[in-house]
Amino acid sequence: MPKINILPPKVFNRIAAGEVVDRPYSVVKELVENSIDAGATEIEIYIEKSGEQMIRVVDNGCGIERDDLHSAFLPHATSKIAQAEDLESIMTLGFRGEAVASIAAVSRMTITSKTAAGKCYSLHAEGGEVGQITETAGENGTIVTVEDLFYNTPVRFKFLKSDRAEEADITNFVSRFILSRPDIAFTYYANGKKVLQSFGGGAEEAFVNVYGAAVLSQCYEINAEKHGLRIRGYIGNQNFFKPNKSYQSVFLNGRYIQNVTITSAIAGAYANYAMKRQYPFYVLYIDMPTEIVDVNVHPNKADVRFADNQVVYGIVNTVIAAILDGHAKALEYVVRQPSSGVYEAEEPKTASKNEQITVQEEKTLPMTPFLDKFKAEESIEEKPKTNTVFGIATLSYEEAQKELEACAPAFTAKVKGVELPFEEKKKETKTPVKGFIPKEEIGPYVPPVGYKDMPPPGRTKKKAEDLQKRFPDLYFKRNVFELNDPNYAKAQKQKEALDAFSENKRLLEELDKKNKQNAIDVSSCVYAGKLFNTYLMYECKDDIYIIDQHAAHERLIYNRLKRQMAERNVVQQPMLVPYELELNVFEREFIGEHIEEIREMGFEIAENDRKGYSITAIPLDLQHINIEAFFNEILGDISGYRAIRLTDILKDKLASAACKAAVKGGMDLTREEIDALFALMDGDMGLKCPHGRPVVVKMSRTEIEKMFKRIV
From CA 311, how far away is CA 315, in angstroms rounded? Predict the structure, then answer.
């Protein structure tokens, strides 16, 4: 067995950094959490080059004593807890004591701190190696500077996102901090530019700083307390949804979390109102006793565990559903209604699903706080036991035996010793033929005199090459010596390349042949009339072509739009009033990465001063589209829940535009318009509309005469 080694701090700190400090945003998160735990009321955050070059967090908290500066860089050193019992009542954001040591192990880190009654001191660490404490000038509080992140672990750079994406993640977390602690003034700078700022004026001010007053007017402000759990914050009304989940925030005891139980409960409450690919908007603060929640699940502290998920789900779902459905109980929960609509409460009438949940919760959940035993007792009716496997009923041994006796008389007869009603065919045994000489007694084969090369009778062997010539369609497996032969492998690669080339050539020839077969000579066609002002008929020799005028025109317009896109020659329609896209940080980053593709579509789009984008022109052929719906489709699930291909969205939009612009079925076209449409088809009778429907149906004279029984 190999020798067991005790890893030095320099090694295990770098290992711990892989979980605690995986990207620049996690450094910002850990440092800001320390500032909040230090009692800071003002926090400034600076980053350079998406945090890889520099991250600095400045606060006016309590500061660090000189004697504790060295300890701050040690692993598992924390001022938040002192004994194991403290883990049961954690109210601080940090408590593990791993962040500073992990960050220092993969960067050049400096801590400068001053307490109210002491002097200002600074301590520098490089790659986990701590230097000497020096006295310096500074104000009350702490300044933590992290430079050259991951300089000694360059492999980590391979797993980072682009600079824009990393900066977007940091901005997103700063936004969460502004929402979670509205009593603290935050200022956030990225590359010298002020991105976010709050003034510590309360929850409403923080909400408006992050999302704007227009979003606030679409939300209910709620404050509910139920069975020891308090839910407050803002939820979107029944008609206010977002195209992705990046507008959803839950803070549990001041900590931002991502918990499946809570998100599922809220999604269930909105289920009757949300359409496909629509997600509710909410910023919720949930307070509960620390004894029934475990925050020590993962080093990043992003998820928590509840002592009883069902109770938490039921309370959250009941409160949100009561507000959305307009129950009388919601009057106790709503602080302010959305200004865009009127909130009406009504008495519950009958048993709708959400109302049943409400009544059940009132009856079964104890009215004591969460600190008591809060598991609700449910009376479940006993169901008759049935033998099933994957939902299919199975038989007992006695039942199976009865079925076997009924369906297999031969088996029953054998068991009971009864004579069979038929004779069973017995297996024949071969007997030696009289005069047969065993092979062992024959001896070796001797060819006849004068026929030295004659093979023994019945043992003629042919080489593989001879068999391949006689039977070219058969598959002959190569032996291991041939497969390992480099000449054979080289010949096989050449043969495969030749076969692939031949196959591609054959497919192209077949496609060209098919296109030629579908194409006809327009000059040889004669207009034969139209049906229902929708289907145009042209006679060509012994065939008649029936053309759907809408599908044909739609396809021609679609082809023209695609050609304009490919040639970067899209005609634009300027807008009298620019359309403003109000986006969050994730959406801005996504649009910024794909802005050139959007411009190639024909949109004139540029960043504005309100942290969004302004659209000043749209493609002329798409002038009737709903811009909001179009960009919501682009922004759908941008946070990684599905892959987005703008080319696919563009194809659908072009198809919709072509459909709207094309002549409709039932429209009475003049003869000149009909001939012009037929000429634009250029004899291509194999066209299909962008949605896959055929444009042309061909009928031969023979088929028509068979229909009328003129021929058989």
Answer: 6
Out of 347-356, 389-398, 612-621, pick the least confident.
347-356
CB 295 within 8 A of CB 90: yes
* Burial classification of residue 548, based on how many CB atoms lie within 10 Å of its CB (0-12 exposed, 13-18 middle, 19 or more buried): buried
- pLDDT for position 649: 63
Residue 482, H or E segment: helix 480-483
HSE toward the beta carbon, residue 487, CA cutoff 13 A: 2
**435: region left, alpha or beta (phi > 0 left; psi from -120 to 50 alpha):** left
pLDDT, tens digit, 9 for 90 and up, residues 599-610: 877 889 998 877
Following CA atoms 706, 707, 709, 712 in sequence, which dihedral angle do they give, to the nearest 10 degrees?
Answer: 30
Full-prediction pTM beyond 0.90? no
- Helix H or strand E segment including 316: helix 309-325
412 pLDDT band, cuts 50/70/90, is low
- Whole-angstrom Cα distance, residue 320 to residue 238? 11
| C-beta separation of 24 from 83 below 8 A | no
Distance between CA 99 and CA 76 in Å, rounded?
Answer: 9
**3-state SS track over 264-315:** HHHHHHCCCCCCCCCEECEEEEEECCHHHEECCCCCCCCCCEECCHHHHHHH
> Phi/psi of residue 598, each to 5°?
-65, -40
Tell me the chain's radius of gyration from C-alpha atoms: 39
Q: How far apart are CA 547 and CA 694, in angstroms?
A: 9
- Tokens, residue 479: 């032996």
Span of 27-31, 536-540, 630-634 with lowest mean pLDDT: 630-634
Contact 603, 655 (CB under 8 A): no
| Residues pairing with 614 in the sheet | 580, 606
Please check whether residue 142 is in contact with residue 64, taking contact to mean a CB–CB distance below 8 angstroms.
yes
Assign 562 to helix, strand or coil: helix
Nearest one of 184, 19, 178, 11 to 99, comparing CA atoms: 19
**What is the bridge-based pairing of β-strands 185-190 and 42-48?**
parallel
Q: Is residue 203 a contact partner of residue 172, using CB atoms and an 8 Å limit?
A: no
pLDDT of residue 218: 92
Sequence-separated (6 or more) residues with CB below 8 Å from residue 596: none
659: left (phi over 0), alpha (psi -120 to 50) or beta: alpha
Structure confidence by residue, pLDDT tens digits, 167-202: 988 998 899 999 999 999 999 999 999 989 999 999
Handedness of CA 559, 564, 565, 567 (dihedral sign): positive
- Euclidean distance between CA atoms 551 and 691, whole angstroms: 9
- Count H helices and E strands in the chain, helices first: 22, 28
Reported as a single tens digit per residue, the pLDDT across 368-392 is: 333 343 344 333 344 444 444 434 4
